[in-house]
Write a structure and sequence with these properties.
The chain has 15 helices and 2 strands. The chain has 327 residues and is mainly α. The model has no long low-confidence stretch (mean pLDDT 93).
Length: 327
């Protein structure tokens, strides 16, 4: 006979599997948008490392957002503990629901409208009853969030050349040029100060916030008025996301929208570099088109932080690029 512990574990595994399957269905369903045209997978495309390849996201009714779509393929591997470019959410269960009620993303007026849309589908009613057998009051926003989170956490990045190089002690997994790039990444390039190589697989982020200057030039003249208005509104959570999605100038202020601390103006969350060669364009506003451009931008601002030029040669930049392509 199976032990009680084994039965409980088996039941839990079965429930997780059901929730992953349900979450995938929700993730790919255009009915979960106000105009029945946008699904989560419209912006988080598997073939593009769960980004969309656009400068900024495009949502319901063709509305353009203000931020570049971050990859979902790195969430679990990197151990992300804050979400969105400004870190306004600290729980993935909150973060997965926000786009559904964002007016320029998926466009539902509120979570009640979302639940009504889901409950109208007989297949979903059955699937939710199976995945959440303890539910007693119909489908809830929390259950929708739990299913989506189960799916997002199930996403696995393909094993990279760098993963093989590290975990299997396989020197041939990285080309000689990429190995030189790794040395630059850890050394004079100073990349590993923010894109940490710790963990298995490597996190490639410090889960912190940094300023690269991207986007601030466009709003510097209006900074006092912008910041004062943000302080007066004092928004939180999803309301911040709704606001910055429709106001590109405020979106450039980054972490300040959350903390209202002047020291946080222009700070953005460090993205993981896992799969970075597949996630162009780069930066929070998608304004850096190519990996070469991103390297140039980072070298420039690392030089400013160090108070002296990093002075990477053309060959060293190519080495660094080869390493980044191996992540």
């Amino acid at each position: 006979m199976k032990s009680h512990t084994a039965v409980v574990k088996s039941d839990r595994t079965s429930l997780i599997s059901l929730r992953v399957t349900l979450g995938k269905q929700l993730f790919n369903d255009v009915q979960l948008s106000a105009d029945n045209t946008i699904r989560c997978a419209s912006c988080h495309i598997p073939e593009k490392a769960y980004t969309d390849g656009r400068r900024v996201a495009i949502g319901v009714y063709g509305h353009m957002g203000s931020r570049n779509t971050p990859s979902l393929a790195t969430v679990e591997a990197s151990g992300d503990n804050t979400f969105f470019w400004d870190g306004r959410r600290t729980m993935l269960e909150q973060a997965v629901l926000d786009p559904l009620t964002n007016p320029v993303e998926m466009g539902f007026q509120d979570q009640a409208e979302l639940v009504q849309k889901v409950e109208a589908n007989a297949e979903y009613r059955v699937a939710f009853a199976q995945a959440f057998p303890d539910g007693k009051s119909g489908i809830t926003p929390n259950e929708i969030a739990s299913a989506l989170v189960a799916y997002v956490r199930s996403l696995k990045s393909p094993e990279s050349a760098y993963d093989r190089y590290v975990s299997h002690d396989d020197p041939s997994a990285l080309s000689p040029r990429a190995q030189l790039g790794l040395a630059i990444f850890k050394g004079k390039g100073r990349c590993a100060e923010c894109h940490l190589l710790q963990g298995s697989p490597a996190m490639l982020t410090d889960h912190a916030y940094h300023r690269t200057g991207v986007g601030l030039d466009a709003v510097n003249q209006h900074l006092p008025e912008l910041t004062q208005a943000i302080i007066e509104r004092s928004l939180h959570g999803a309301a911040i996301g709704d606001r910055v999605a429709m106001h590109a100038d405020e979106a450039q202020l980054g972490r300040f929208n959350v903390t209202q601390d002047p020291a946080d103006i222009g700070l953005f969350r460090t993205p993981s570099l896992r799969g970075v060669a597949s996630t162009a364009p780069y930066m929070h506003d998608g304004s850096v088109a190519t990996l070469d451009d991103a390297i140039d931008r980072e070298v420039y601002y690392r030089s400013l932080e160090a108070d002296h030029p990093l002075q990477l040669t053309i060959e060293e930049r190519e080495d660094l690029k080869a390493f980044l392509q191996a992540l």
